# Entry
Amino acid sequence: MTSLTMIRAAAGRLHGHARLTPLLNAPLLDRIAGRRIYVKAECLQLTGSFKFRGAWSALTALDPETRARGVIAFSSGNHAQGVAHAAALHGVPAVIVMPADAPAIKIANTRAYGAEVVLYDRTTQDRDAIGTDLASARGLTLIKPYDEPQVIAGQGTTGLEIATQAAEAGIDTATVLTCCGGGGLTAGIALALENTPFHVRPAEPENFDDTARSLAAGRRETNATLTGSICDAIITPSPGQITFPILQRLCGPGLVVTDDQALHAMALAFTHLRIVVEPGGAVALAAAIFGRDLPDTVICTASGGNVDPVLFATTLQRFTDPA
Amino acid sequence: MTSLTMIRAAAGRLHGHARLTPLLNAPLLDRIAGRRIYVKAECLQLTGSFKFRGAWSALTALDPETRARGVIAFSSGNHAQGVAHAAALHGVPAVIVMPADAPAIKIANTRAYGAEVVLYDRTTQDRDAIGTDLASARGLTLIKPYDEPQVIAGQGTTGLEIATQAAEAGIDTATVLTCCGGGGLTAGIALALENTPFHVRPAEPENFDDTARSLAAGRRETNATLTGSICDAIITPSPGQITFPILQRLCGPGLVVTDDQALHAMALAFTHLRIVVEPGGAVALAAAIFGRDLPDTVICTASGGNVDPVLFATTLQRFTDPA
# Structure
């Protein structure tokens, strides 16, 4: 079970290795939103998302012998890149199990970070069986994307930084909106900010609002489908087994944004903050800009920036005014 | 004459008002360049460029009575926005003199920061006469974009931060490449880094390489034309009267990049650093990536991020691979 002590210990291990990302704001963005918005720019984190924090935390929590044998992860996205880079910096093997039909650029990037990519056929092969076989044959340790206490502790370091940076900016109290998939980032930040005047609310894309519905229902609800969202980075079947009780105790209610609001937020982040945010990483900012019944001051995560350039270009053409 | 003492004093005045921008790097970008590249991301500065530093420094150096009467600047670009926002934060008037044919979005943005925009006709009216008349009628103080010691001191605070952040990143020695127009940023950084193992070299777009040619010739050379560059933010007739002697003493030789290299650097900054950089703000990064005869470690400024979204979208389509 992740505790504030574990998050502080993770922060110590991350110091000088992960990036202290800035808390950004822009007066013209505040005017559009009608409130003060501060953005924790985790898209500027190493590998382009907060996932590097959890990966580094988990790797550094392993005993050296276990770590030396290497790690394994299932992911075609930001978690894959975080684990691959964290392992490479430790000089230990990383195996990333990815579907063979994942975008070529994601496979190439994961390899470029130094990982061995093992592809499987989604229609005929069992991913978990492949992973279990590889892990036992080579003695690899599985790094789960969110249901792992040391991963949650790593993501929680984002919350410690938010508290410090908010104090420096003179913010006494605020609602903190997080981009929420399996809930690792949200749970970590909520634990880091427990007993502070900062209340955490998860944000999700519409039709993939398992966390909002789970918090409302008081039990883990499932998404009807896992495909068809532009917010691929934060689509999970349901809140995690470990993360959900933390969310239930500390967070909510959930906020839901449309795909167009997420894209519009990406375009506003381009114009006013000059950061690159992916759709799933923009849902909290979208909620901050377009949400109702929010306080005067909102802090949100821009949790990742690994976005298809064609989608980004199209979004700029739809949602910005030319110079 | 700007001194290290003045730069340190400006840093004190900027503390808590300007943003401490991050020094970013990316392993996959280093692999493309064949060297380690660190990027001082001034595109993340308030108003989207380093110009806010110089504006704030100049405003805070005025005596309170003079400042209260207000300031005036000639600019349709980043200097205008920096002066407008710095003045608004002080609650003092800012008048920005802009050509009537400036892009509507730039006029709108400058007004949105709270400035009074005075438009003039480039073909029939004398900009300097308009400015002089306004300044004397209202008691406004002119804030020049680079040939002003307190502006240079403000831009120099970027150099102090580079020195601190480089030490934190374990960088002992490096070449520092700057995006160079009139030379305010370059002169300020060079003064801040004098007597350190960091040598400053200005970068410019081809055909607008007045500084490189001036440094080679030992006297101020002029650009043949001032129009037709995509790097509008850093196009000036020649190095400044005050800045050039500083550049001559501390900097060089100059580096020159093509427009396509600047655009390619913008696209690589999108993919690997997740920052938005404008063409003129990308010339130092372009020199760092594509330049020859550079050391293993290069630090460069990404000096601004106020870019036309249509140009940005087109650049992504030309220079990136889809996901």
Notes: The beta strands of chain A are 23-24, 36-41, 71-74, 94-99, 116-120, 141-142, 174-179, 198-205, 255-257, 297-302.
